[in-house]
């Protein structure tokens, strides 16, 4: 063997052996904090006492004098302190972007969509999206959409399950399909028709689900190297992610091209895509924008609607007050004639108790339980916590909804009244105390729409049906992911209300 060849092989051998060793050393340094919290994190021993990681974090945050903690092995600072939340989301917003780490995790799926970018691209999309979402016509379009999906699909489907208490079904699955149909019609003007349980989920919905799930799983690997290497080799979950993302992008691309062909200049169908087409020419960018909207508005809605039915399951008095309020504002529904009375947009705004119930449910079960940023530069938080650049800084709406220091000693109780003043009018709270929709500069753009949709769905269901939750029977456990979903779903029994006549009880708000 020639000398250069031999030297090359020797070098290759040394690199092959030393690289993994070096990697192990680095990981060991980070993963070897032996404090109690880091040990519990590393060994998952917290799971012996808490049903979910978020419940353990809540426990730690409650015990912390600053309401901020740091988990060394994952370089993660977590806070439930409203003053710190305001610091991150508003006062020092520019120091706490989503960051490249986050963008890389979701990049193959979301590309340059609003959810996944910072800087100019984010502000461009935010500016256009907020003027579109704020417009009266898109608000009406969204509202009509929801009403039609409820009337033509949701209620008939639920009716088909009622009649006999023996036909249990997963309400969370129904809401997932409902919100997918809804957000696709809103974003694309394209109806995937998923809310037919006899049909498999559409190829688009399936691929979307898988891509979102596998992207979220990237964040759970011990080191980003793990998924990056799998990605280069195109194996396992990374190969499936690549395939699922390709299906989503191809179908979204088809929808865009078809719309372009059918479109008359100056006239659009009211959906978000048509509106963005007026100001964005680049097809890939358009596709990314719309995919982000689907992600933003789909799982969050399904999770939120599932949670409220879990919370009101043992609270007949809350259901009764919602029904009474509706009867007062819109009149009694004539169920004998089979008619469903939907509230108008303005009537919905008058339903303060319903609004309070929705906010209260989101307080205890926020669909986005935690949200991360990455510190660009060293900083000191208002509670004195030092933050090194590159640290992941997380605010935790789930824990915040359970802090006595924020909501008082009855913080674990579902009590819509805490949102009402003495006259029964809904009163909003400081958004940094309640960052369920984030808050500050990047506050959720679909917040109003989400509240209207939730109110409409909850009202339509409780006016028509009695719902009994069968499973889970006690604690809720969540699946890990970007959005909180009940592990195993929410199994319910449903019965059409027999007392269809006018409600005689006085509405006492
Ligand atoms: C209960 C339902 C919803 C909840 C709890 C919720 C919550 C959130 C949260 C926490 C964020 C910040 C995420 C982050 O930056 O990492 C966010 C952002 C966003 N949401 Fe929502 N959302 C809901 C429904 C919707 C709906 C229905 C839409 C629109 C159709 C929507 C559109 C958006 C958009 C566009 C952003 C990105 C804003 C930006 O980065 O500037 N959301 N939402």
From TrEMBL:
One of its GO terms (molecular function) is monooxygenase activity. The chain crosses the membrane at residues 6-27. Coiled coil: none annotated. The keyword Metal-binding applies. The keyword Transmembrane applies. Pfam families: p450. Its cofactor is heme. Keywords: Heme, Iron, Membrane, Metal-binding, Monooxygenase, Oxidoreductase, Transmembrane, Transmembrane helix. Heme binds at residue 444. InterPro entries: Cyt_P450, Cyt_P450_E_grp-I, Cyt_P450_sf. SUPFAM superfamilies: Cytochrome P450. Belongs to the cytochrome P450 family. This is Cytochrome P450. It comes from Trapa incisa.
